[in-house]
Amino acid sequence: MQTTGTSNATSDLFGAFFAEQRRHWRRLLNVPKLGAVALGTEVGTTPHDVVYQTGTLRLLRYRRQTPARHAEPLLLCYALINRAYILDLRPDKSVVARYLAEGFEVYLIDWGVPTAADRHLTVEDYVCRLLADVVSFVLRAHGRDTLHLLGYCMGGTLATLFSALAPERIATLTLLAAPIAFDGRESLLNVWVDSQYFDVDALIDAHGNCPAWFLQGCFLAMKPVQNVLEKGLALYDLLGESPALTSYFAMERWTNDNIPVAGETFREFVKKLYQNDELVQGRFRLGQRPVDLSRVTCPVLLLTAKKDHLVAPASTEKVRRYIGSTDVSSLAVDAGHVGLIVSGKAQAVMWPAATRWLAERSTPAAATPTPTHGRTDT
User: Which residues belong to the active site?
Assistant: First the structure.
């Protein structure tokens, strides 16, 4: 019996060895196809129109195939770092598509790439002028007094600032991994920007805008093993899977599609928020206007990632202590900062729940005036 068992085990071992050899050769045979797959991978493919432009900013309105079921439009406010198409990465990994399917009119702010002339743009410029103008445009286009606002990462911070200054315009606020409280040390980013180690004035005075290469280097250095070794191994494993390869290259395109940040905005964000935590302490001002978080009284949804290495969930969740809303909900997913958007877990579980939450707090479209189309400004 022992001889038979040993023979079977040996047979299984050799079978597994030869199966892996076959997979290895299939992967190698697919290597020549990598360039075509990478170049042919499209991102941000949900049909849309650019309905408003000013400076480098573009406002995208996504096309609906059926009438909207909800009165209030949804405005997506992305961060000033990287590109906004992460919210519409691929058809099966698209936050935009989720909200369209739930019956919303969906808009997305693409901030564009700041030029050398934009180095003087401040947080006040982004919130009180650019974001405020976009909100006004969308409200006019739909004949509404309020809209739903969703902000991701740094865009969530901007959305929170606007909601505190103009609460009468915001029906609900959804925050995705948005840094609000900056007192924690769970993230390396919070440690690195500490005034003991990082002289933001020297960086911005030297470069004008915060360089894209600097930001990219910081992000790569936060997870060096994963970003160098594990990523290469993951690509090797995916060589025989065409759909998975397409998703891989879509993420790689976005990850490496870095853009600079307007210098004065970066300086202000680091010094006043990361280093001095002025927002939750009630000391942050936009120009002459104090930002009072207690004025955020609309329903708020907090979406966080348990393995987020950029924005700790606590940084977002602490907003509960300071806002005036009595309707605050939370959803968390076992993923990282970007996995909050594109992971299978997030797409299968969290985003259906998040879109339902918003639908439950919306007005039926039948009760609204007929939408009008605003003009495109330049």
Answer: 153, 308, 337
